[in-house]
Amino acid sequence: MHISETEITVRYAETDQMGVVYHANYLVWMEIGRTQLIQDLGFSYAQLEKDDILAPVTNANVSYKKPLRYGEKAKIRTWIEKYDGLRTTYGYEIITETEEVAATGFTEHVTVRRKSFRPLSLRKAHPEWHETYEKMKKQV
């Protein structure tokens, strides 16, 4: 299984009054990890959008384990959890500098046509993308 890793440094603006990362920022970091995974696999979400295809989030889940604070470094680990040609579930771990799990989560996406938001098979729209995701799914 290919696991993409992206390192970030917690910015002051990402923390809340308690001095820890505000919960919604983990979703932003998951998006950073997801786009990096797509890039690692040789594709571009921007190109998908140019082809009038979108992959909106249909479900998101984050479980918080350990707080992160301003100035700390963290790694976002991202992989393909499930894929069926239309829907993709990405898995995530946010890891601290000391290799502790700060958060885990997943996001579910469906590919759709931009104008109609009607579901679209990635197999038909981008066969090479589909084949790569099929291979990644088998490795899970």
TrEMBL record:
InterPro entries assigned: 4-hydroxybenzoyl-CoA_TE, HotDog_dom_sf, YbgC/YbaW
Top-rank lineage group of the source organism: Bacteria
GO molecular function, one term: hydrolase activity
Hydrolase among keywords: yes
Enzyme Commission designation: 3.1.2.-
Alphabetical keyword list: Hydrolase
Keyword Coiled coil: no
UniProt family annotation: Belongs to the 4-hydroxybenzoyl-CoA thioesterase family.
Name of the protein in its database record: Acyl-CoA thioester hydrolase
Lineage: Bacteria, Bacillati, Bacillota, Bacilli, Bacillales
